[in-house]
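We treat protein structure as text, and this decision shapes the records that our systems exchange. Below, we set out a record of this kind in full and without editing:

***
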Amino acid sequence: MVKLTFRHYRILFLLSLLIYVVADQAIAKHASTSWLDTLNVVIYPINGDSSKQSQQIINTLSKKDFSSIKHFIKNQSTHFGLLIDQPIDIKIAPQINKPPALPSLDAGIVSTMLWSLKMRWWAWHENTYSGAKDIRLFVEYYAEESAESQISVGLEKGRMALIKNYADKQLMERNNVIIAHEMLHTLGATDKYDSVTLMPSFPQGYAYPELGRNEKRDTCEIMGGRIPYADDIAVVPESLSHCLIGKTTAKEIGWVK
């Protein structure tokens, strides 16, 4: 008979924990992309630069500021034949006062995985919302553009995103494009643009790819991120009214089987 030591128990505990995490993620993944029930999307505002301007924006936030995201998902889901009346509902959590650590732009695979784990621990520890939450969007506001204000990332594992927005009411709709993009990452959607040039990838990153690569358009595929005007020119849309969800993205998030 083998006698179990403390080290054996520790290994068994870690294996059990790993199995639980994997199973929990699989169940959560299925639940979030089955689209049988409304997903609760919670926005956690954060003052990213500790500025008065960012705080003023946070103090005046309401669900109306994010309503275009809700309408965008509803309209696009209807286009793909989704039967649920309201795919997502958006709620605003009380402000978080401790910003998370930023991911490195040139981090390797190991560093990125470690940051992801730290981010999930931080999200659990700093949670300010007690209600149901299927997707957590941590939105940092910045009064001025900087290197820190440019890094947004969505994590499918944990169904959360760290998003950088401008602290300007006139740019709220442009902010919502970024929020919607990162939110779709949490549901399994992948980027459809070149990570170096930021140009949309043809055909998956183009709206109406059937028109061809060189046909002018005023709409972008949301995961392509930009409206392509020429081979080397693309611009970020001003609002979600200039965006759509393409068939590849729809398949990734469970709208197309």
